[in-house]
Amino acid sequence: MKKFFNLLIIGAILLQQIPIKPFYAEEIQVMENELEWINVPGIEGGKIKFDINTGTIIEAEETISIAHIPEQINGITVTSIGDLAFEWCRDLISLSMPNTVETIGDRAFFSCINLTSVVIPEGVVSIRGAAFLSCEQLKTITLPSSLNYVEQFIFDACPNLEIIYYGSNIDRWYSLNIPTLPSTRIEVAEDWLSVPGIEGGMIKFDKNTGIITDASEKIYRANIPQIIDNVTVIAIGNEAFYNCDNLKTVSLPVSITSIGKGAFENCNKLTTINIPDGITHIRENTFWECVNLKTIMLPESITHIEDKAFFGCDKLENMLIPKNVTNIGDFSFSGCSSLEIVTILGAPSVIGKDTFNYCNNLKKIYYDGNEIQWKLLKTDVANNTEIICNNDVELPNLPYEKLNEIETTQEATLLLINIISDLTKEQYEDRYTTELLTCYVEEIIAQIASTTIEDLSLINYDAITELAQEAVLASKELSKILTAEGIILSRDLECNIMIKTLAKENSPITIHSDITQADIDNLRLLIDDVEIAIDKNKITKPQSFEISLEKVDDKYNISYVGEIPITIALPIVESDVKYQAIFKNNEVIGGKLNPATDRIEAKIQPMEQITNFNVAQNKKYFSDLTYTSTQIQEAINVLASKGIINGKQSEIFAPNDFISREEIAIMLTKIIHEDDLTANAWYKDITFDDNTFKGYDIISKEQIIVIVARVLQSEKNYIVPENPDKYLSEYNDVLSISDWAKADVALATQEELVVPNIDGTFMPNSAMTRGEAALILKKLFDRVG
Description:
Number of domains: 3
Strand content: 15-25%
Shape: elongated
Structural class: alpha/beta
Helix content: 10-25%
Distance between the termini: 99 Å
Radius of gyration: 38 Å
């Protein structure tokens, strides 16, 4: 009897909704019949008909059991579920639809008696007629906040409907005027809640979307939990904390993936906030006029900083922009009057013209792109703001593994031509690439002019004459190839020869001073896996040298009796090669990687007794490098690992402090491994007229550039440009460069050791900071270390 009564109700409802058939209805029916039945991924158990002209699902086979409707069908966006589309689909047990759907038609799911739960996504604005008429097992349904039109028959003959989850607040629910059974519970998603960790007031939280949509202006601390009422918090909505002028600290959970526009606008007491990894956009006006925000760290996931994001953050002093940021909007940092340093770790394609408008204290912008890229951005900055670009070129991948295969100059010639032809235009013009290529050719020469002597006790002129001749011939031929290929060297190729032998216990190798008669630069000995090099040109006395070596575990006991420093090269260990150094009796002496041999090379002085050497990882950590450029951080970390540069405290480097002449001098002696500071030619060159060094004076840019250029000349025989004006003309303040410094400044400019100013000035009298000095010294170390 009850079932019969229900059928009568349904019949009455249907009679109310049967429209008068217009004269063109037959044409519409014909059109629908012409649509093909198609299979759609996600829809199982049957086919559907889809109108590509309207984006509407017109009809579905009654056998369909699962309908996970995709956003697009055959490349066309699904925008509506048509009238009666899924009627009588009694096997349908699972239904989902994309947020592209805007309309659900009359009786679209009529008599889908096995549906128990339905989620209508955000985006649906209209549900027509009795869309879920006679869905007898329907227990829960979620309606979106986007819904603004619903007809009253939507849930007729749904006797088991227990809960309706609505995506907005209770007032909007009542405005929809949807009849429900007395037993049906309405749960609104968006409601004011008191949440542990959020102090001073309540927030409004949308449980359907996981978005905090509003907040009491009385909140003073917001430690937002990851879960609120069993729902994960995934976003802070637009203007959610707008004008919360008591809010001081905010802690966002890792579940947050989005922060809306103006989310913390006018929070004028906000001092601390964390941005979790996963956030990609700092939206427009997000921190507008947060006048007490002093520091903020952006995660690497950030890709966009939108217009006016940090507008008027008066106390923001430093800003680190992550490497993945591609767009920085207009006025995004405008009015940040305390901002001093901005470090842009990437090379964004867009930086707004007025991004740094009214940043009157902005001293430096470190930009990881090159000078040309910066100029193309056309971003305005104050005249006193220094732009420091990264003009480093991606280095070529030289085939070091092929060196051991070379036996003749002809083989070397073919290899060298192929290497040069593979260089990019930027690499071809890059001076450090030229230095790497020079070193590579010198390794080729040593490979050609090499021999193995198993029982080696004495090396003299007679023993190396033939090798020296081979080295000279190879050097001349390869120099011709470099010239023919347009490679202009900064220095002459060194003629190196190599003798390989085995270490014998208590059996030193004697090197006679008559090797100075040979036309070579360096004699290299490979004893087991250790290489020792003697610079023949440094020998000034007729005195022999004795070298002995013994390996004990991972350390080497070396004895050396002689008058000049020699270079030792020890095998690398398994770890980050950049931060490995040679230790002498457990004290770091530095050393640079030779990629051709995978050994760390460092000079050592003569020793009166057997000394212990080994290679170990020596990476240092400084906590105050966050706002320096990637280049400067790398320079400091590398030089510190080599023992060349130290922090002012154990973990404090102070990169923005000025550096003295004495500090620079000490660092240089460590780069070239000299014990006596005053014995160096460059030291004498930069003393003042009264023969004082004035070590405590802050060093100027001109002075450090001159010192570096003269070290290049004394240590590696770099050649001063024949036409210095060619390089000095790059500076529009060339007249302010001292006459005594011009040749050296020209050499340093040619070798790209000068960090260029974007405005074309050299600024010879400007004081150097510790970070800037480290960058220049790292470039020097790469060439002579």
